[in-house]
């Protein structure tokens, strides 16, 4: 999987120990498990909410995209989307060279696009 959305990687780029912890002031979103619904399993391309530790109701801005199937995550993390086009980009990110901390050796920046009604 690849993971993103942690404000600490942007706001504290030199404080790696804070990465993955998120911003505790962000509103937490309750879990909504999709296990058992047809097509909604943690398969390749699924977009799901990351969380803080073992607290299932602690999702905030962090998310992950499945690079491979991981059925053991079903019923543990909330699924809220699926990559329909562009999995080549996910593959490229997932296979980029990493350092000993499993971080990409080169910074990967996401472009944010906001949709309005």
UniProtKB/TrEMBL annotation:
Lineage of the organism: unclassified sequences, metagenomes, ecological metagenomes
SUPFAM superfamilies, per the entry: Cyclophilin-like (SSF50891)
Isomerase recorded as keyword: yes
Amino acid composition bias (Polar residues), ranges on this chain: 1-28
GO molecular function, one term: peptidyl-prolyl cis-trans isomerase activity
One Pfam family cited in the UniProt record for this chain: Pro_isomerase
Enzyme class of the recorded protein, top EC level: isomerase
Entry keyword set: Isomerase, Rotamase
Entry EC no(s): 5.2.1.8
Domain PPIase cyclophilin-type: 1-115
Listed InterPro entries: Cyclophilin-like_dom_sf, Cyclophilin-type_PPIase_dom, Cyclophilin_A-like
Source organism: bioreactor metagenome
Record's protein name: peptidylprolyl isomerase
Residue ranges of the region described as Disordered: 1-35
């Amino acid at each position: 999987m690849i993971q993103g959305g942690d404000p600490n990687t942007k706001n504290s780029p030199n404080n790696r120990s804070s990465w993955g912890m998120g911003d505790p002031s962000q509103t937490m979103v309750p879990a909504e498990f999709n296990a058992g619904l047809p097509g909604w399993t943690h398969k390749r391309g699924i977009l799901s909410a990351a969380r803080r530790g073992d607290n299932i109701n602690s999702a905030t801005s962090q998310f992950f995209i499945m690079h491979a199937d991981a059925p053991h995550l079903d019923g543990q993390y909330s699924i809220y989307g699926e990559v329909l086009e562009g999995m080549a980009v996910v593959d490229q990110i997932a296979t980029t060279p990493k350092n000993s901390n499993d971080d990409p050796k080169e910074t990967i920046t996401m472009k944010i696009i906001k949709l309005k009604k």
